[in-house]
Amino acid sequence: MNWRTGLRKGRSHIIFAVALAVAGLFLIRLDDEELAARQCLKAQPCAQPQVPQRPEGQP
Amino acid sequence: MSEAAMTESAARPAFYFSKFEDRRPPDPLPVSRPVELVWQVLAVLNLSLGAWYIGWRWTSSINWDAAWFAIPLVLAETCAWFGLVLFTLNLWKTRDYPLRDAPGLLSECTAEPPHTDRALSVDVFIATYNEEEELVRLSIRDAKAMRYPHPIDVTIHVLDDGRRATMRQVADEEGVNYITRDNNQGFKAGNLRNAMEQTRGDFIVICDADTRTLPTLMERTLGYFRDPDVAFVQTPQWFYDLPEGERLCDWLGRKVGKPGRWFGGAVEAVFGEIRVGEDPFVNDPAMFYDVIQRRRNPWNAAFCCGAASIHRREAVMFVALKAYASAILGASEDKRFRITRLIGKKADPGAQALALWQAAQTEELTPYKFHVSEDIYTSIVLHQDKSRRWKSVLHPWVESKMLSPQDLLTWTIQRFKYAGGSLDILFHDNPVTAPGMSLGQRLMYLTTFWSYLGAVWNCLFLIAPLIYLVFGVTPVSAYSRDFFAHALPFLIVNEIAFMFGTWGLSGYKGKVSYLASFPISLRALWAVLNKQKIKFPVTPKERQTGNFLHLVYPQMAIMAATVLAFGWAALALGLGIGHYTLGGLVANGLWGLNNILAMSIMVRAALWQPENEQ
To answer: Does the beta-carbon distance from B488 to A32 stay under 8 Å?
Structure first.
């Protein structure tokens, strides 16, 4: 049996593995975004507008 | 065609399978050492990743706030991983027994020379009960057409448990022996015993009513018996009537015209040939015989599956007599004790002899155990015999053809018998812990039993996404990067490993049918645990008509519940109800989708109709 036939017969495994990888990466990305959003909420400054602070004593 | 042949052909009924008569069986899967090596490397990696994942699940991931859900699920995952270890051991390597020349004389098949050497004698048993006589006629004719390169004494016997005059007439017309009895004690096993009492062949070919032997069966299998320790040879069962289905592009073309044909063609160009309606009941036994059973040869653990097997009479009788003797001894001890109590003194030799005689009257000699899985039972008894270390052989070439279940009811009856019979052996006569077998043989039988117990954890895998989608309860502490980092490598490598482990066969249908047939195994388990006797109904050989949707209510319920639960969870996430997360919703949604796809295969099977009935 040549490799092409073997791969064709076992394609369901390849499709399933690819689907798992794609879905997994997508879910990890989602988790990362959620984590970043949560960290942003904890560290308030990033939720505020970035206004340059004037050094003390300057007019 | 001569006039007589035309008349005969016209008189013979046309069966639904007549159009498949010209089909030829596939060759066994070729053995490739490089592929086997890739499989073994990936298998080790897979089991290691699995162990790493399971270890992490137990130590770092359990959501203790929902222990009622988290603990059973992690237990289920652990059981499934253990099943994976067993299955990997089963599939580890292919080592066929070498084919040997067909023996000419009996002395070539025995350890000690017989008193008088002679040609081999073979009894072909065709067991029948209520199958159509003309179907049995086909099996008789094919058995008569078996060839052998040496003089051989072959006798074909029709074992009719239906006591039919019409069946006797067919046997007479075909010039074969007809054997019947006045009861149906022990069903098929009793039928075989009755025939064994009346026959003397050195070897026995066991056929069901629909087993159509190929001409090569004897010449290619009797050579294995040159090894005097070989007790039986099992050949693969091949269903020559499986629907071939229709190419996706043709099917779509028929349904929606040219665009459908183009779309189907494009899909097939990417994924390879796809056939709609092919083998709707996932009956194709290639995975079982060509992979699972064949790879038990190195462990000397291939078991007998009844039809299309060849048995050495001496081996079957040897272990049957031993079992009979030990049963008498066991029973007589009990009787001796009772006699002692009755006569109030120590048992004397007379009482001992009486006890033995009484025990011999009540015990029965059963070459094939009276059990729904008499074939596995016989294999177990042979494998357990330490004094002879009998061998079993799975011959990889198909040597007969037979009919597959053509409707879901028949399929369900057959699977229930398999599951019930195996689980009954596990719970009442467990060979895994009983003395006699080698470690490898024990592990292989455990693999079989474990696969039937798998329905219990499969149930949890079907319910788990539902619990999350309905209640928002997670079994893991979080669907986080950490979780996927542990689960994904294992799951992905598992798929790739088994692609190489079953190289040349498609595993998808078998995998989903295993998941979807959970109600059958659960029912069988329930019956065995409640000490109900698993019945021996004969699997119908004709298609049963009717509506079979009631057989798939559990699968339909899982599908409907998953869809509804997903809808609810999406709504709840949108409205901010409960503890749902987008990651949890997507992960469990995909898991549920996988379950729905698996269940749908059984629902489609319930609705399937052959072309001529559509």
So the answer is: no
What is the distance in angstroms between the CA of the first residue and the CA of the last residue of chain A?
84
CB contacts, 8 Å: A32 with chain B? 481
- Look up residue B468 and give its two tokens: 């999350």
Residues in chain B: 614
Which residues from chain A sit within 8 angstroms of residue B588, using beta carbons?
none
Which residue in chain B is spatially nearest to A19 when comparing CA positions? B492
Which residue shows structure tokens 């075989």? Answer: B192
What pLDDT, on the 0 to 100 scale, is given for residue B160?
96
Token pair recorded at residue B318: 């040897």
Chain B CB contacts of A8 under 8 Å are 272-273
**Distance of alpha carbon B272 from alpha carbon A7, whole angstroms:** 10
| Residue whose entry in the numeric block shows the structure tokens 């162990």 | B51
Residue of A nearest to B483 (CA): A28
pLDDT tens, residue by residue, A1-39: 788 888 888 888 999 999 999 999 999 888 888 878 878
Q: Which residues of A touch B587 (CB under 8 A)?
A: 23, 27
> What is the pLDDT at residue B342?
66
Nearest to residue B232, comparing CAs of B141, B136, B143, B317? Answer: B317
pLDDT over 60 at A55, yes or no: no
d(CA A14, CA B149): 47
| Confidence at residue B1, expressed as pLDDT on a 0 to 100 scale | 45
User: What integer pLDDT is reported at residue B609 of this predicted model?
Assistant: 79
Q: Give pLDDT, residue A57.
A: 52
From the CA of B476, how many Å to the nearest CA of chain A? 14
DSSP per-residue codes, B341-396: HHHTSPPPHHHHHHHHHHHHHH----SS-SSTTHHHHHHHHHHH-TTT--EEEE--
Predicted pLDDT at B614: 52
User: Mean pLDDT of residues grouped by 10 in chain B (614 residues)?
Assistant: 50 78 92 95 98 95 93 97 97 95 95 90 96 95 97 97 96 96 89 93 96 97 96 95 87 89 88 82 88 96 94 91 78 67 65 69 75 88 90 97 90 91 93 93 97 95 96 87 92 96 88 90 94 70 73 95 97 91 92 94 86 59
Using CA atoms, how far apart are residues A17 and A4, in angstroms rounded to an integer? 18
Nearest to B498 among A13, A27, A30 (CB): A13
What are the residues whose beta carbons fall under 8 Å from the beta carbon of B42, sequence distance 6 or more? Answer: B493, B496, B497, B500, B501
HEC string of B549-587? HHHHHHHHHHHHHHHHHHHHHHHHHHHCCCCCCHHHHHH
- Tell me which residue in A11, A12, A31 faces B479 most closely, judged by beta carbons: A31
**Candidate from B273, B484, B496 with C-beta closest to A24:** B484
Strand, helix or coil for residue B433? coil
Q: Do B499 and A27 touch (CB under 8 A)?
A: no
Q: How far is CA B402 from CA B210, B262, B283, in A?
A: 6, 37, 12
Q: What is the DSSP string of B258-311?
A: HHHHHHHHHHHHHH---EETSSTT---THIIIIIIIGGGGGGT-----STTEEE
Which among A8, A13, A27 has the least Cβ separation from residue B484? A27
pLDDT of residue A59: 46
